[in-house]
Amino acid sequence: MCGICGVIAQDRREDVGSTVERLMDRLAHRGPDGRGIRYVRERRAALGHLRLSIVDLATGAQPMANEDGTVWVTYNGEIYNHRALRAELERFGHRFQTRADTEVLVHGWEEWGPVLFSRLNGIFALALFDGRGSRGEIVLARDPLGVKPLYVGGDHERWWFASELAAVRHSGLAIGELRPDAIDEFLVYRFVPSPGTPYRHAWKLPPGHYCTVSLDQPLVVPRFHPYDPGFAPAALPQTAREWAGAVQSGLRAAVQRQLMSDVPVASLLSGGVDSTVVTRLMCSQLPMAPQAFAIGFGNEARGGELHMARAAAAAVGVPLEEVAVEDGDYLATWLSHVTRFGEPIANTGMLLVGLLCQRVGQTHKVVLSGQGADEPLGGYPRHAAERLYPFARRFTGLLRFVPERWAESDRVSRLRRVVSEPDRARRFTEILAVFSPREVEQITGRGDPDRLAQPVRTWLDGAADDDTLNALLRIDARLSLADDLLLIGDHMSMQSSVELRVPFLDLEFLALIERMPGRYKLSWSGARKWLYRRAVRDLLPPELVSGLTGPRARWGRKLGFSTPLDRSVDAWVATSAAPFLTGADAVLPEFARADAINAYVTSIRREHLSRSRQLLALYVLESWLRGAVAS
After folding, report:
1. Distance CA 424, CA 122 (A)
2. Which of the listed residues 94, 117, 358, 584 has the most CB atoms within 10 Å of its CB?
3. CB-based burial, 351-367: b 16+ in 10 Å, e otherwise
4. Are 218 and 246 in a shared domain?
5. Is there a contact between 20 and 5 (Cβ–Cβ < 8 Å)?
6. What secondary structure letter does DSSP report for 39?
7. DSSP label at residue 290
8. What is the pLDDT of residues 16-45, one digit of tens each?
């Protein structure tokens, strides 16, 4: 796992050395084990790499070239099937100089071109310089689930790419002014969906896409090309029993692939079913039990996250290191991380990931997690909205009379919007939304439901139409997971030079579970991940089976971190929300209507509505905007 970057000047006389060095300094936390630059076209273009050495510690330095130096790569990630690809390329006559997975990228590009990306089972963001043509070009690519991020942008003078947008922003490279439409997108999704960023001249590569830029042409809006992962099960299971067996064996193989490392591998253990299964499989495939790490709030009563992790560690038989966080410390520190992030993301748990990986990084470079299971397997309550949609649609009129206080958060109002929306893309947008597109229109004056549903519609085009739940889950994995949870996981773990791996998103395993019928993911009664839970029962210690796979796990409240921020919203609304969001120091009124924001906050206070997600999104947005304007 590493940091990558590059700078390309349009002026053939320019030397980009100092610029790329400055950018690499901002990314130094991502790669403390090595630093390399490859200049091309004299010194008007450069590829930079900062290495966290995990595979082939001795000879895996980057940027790395093919035999004659005409193709170079700088790459961040892991290719789990690199040995099989290496053997195939050697049969075609390619000569390898290292044991690193990196080298299959340069030879694979020579042999297959863009088809290479479909053949990679891994997590990756990469830049390939191909100097075989007369002009020369750089190809950028991001893995199919977007586990590893990659940004690109620039102006008529120079363009750039980098692993982190904040590094670019603080390096003096062009990103343009803030983009008002990004504010609307953030309010709907709580992040800015790919390929957008908050800035006019900066973009995120969407998951499963690549783009090509010529060294001799100014950068305009990049054209992102999709590619499909080239993995599929040899045969699809037919019955529930067959599916359960395939899930168990597929997950076992995924964990085995992701243990690829020349350094020790640890586990993030929350005590939930996903991280517990991964940890148990690691124990069965490693010569000794892995070190496990857990985090929680020190003032929690019995039953909190740390208690669950202790029980799981004892049952599985792994040593556990705990990180206990105090409420006051979390509140004091969280906001600084929000404002330093390259783009706004309203995720209150981001600091927990950072603090946990800070402890991991003291002894380990690689850690496996259970992240990424809920989106493709149907683990969130919001997924039940689509599973139950045909039934709930019959009672659209009755929902008008259901009091909002009957359900947690804003679920009643959201369900009303979902069942009244026949268009699939707009319905899925309502399921995923924090603010509905119509609410955004009231707040900013710009909301257009069709435009704000476009990020959903983009992924819907490639989804199966005959299984609407699977279509929703596919979209959720490439929106909410890719541009929120995985982006946070990458940035916060790499702050401590830790590689965070996600076996549930192994591309061979994902090819299986995304083909599993939706009825096996959420039952007709709304049981979440129900067949998966049945499949992994044999992989769990007996004393954990009931708690992790029983009725409470399938139908109960989704377990997850509850932070002090979640618990402090009511007090903030009562005392500080309106002046913070629309007062003299506020930036948000430059992009939204202050009167509409004040009216929204007043109605929540007056009617005692539960709108913690919406209020936290506004709080994050205003806080981030202040930091962005100040910098």
Report:
1. 31
2. 117
3. bbbbbbbbbbbeebbbb
4. no
5. yes
6. E
7. P
8. 999 999 999 999 999 999 999 999 988 999
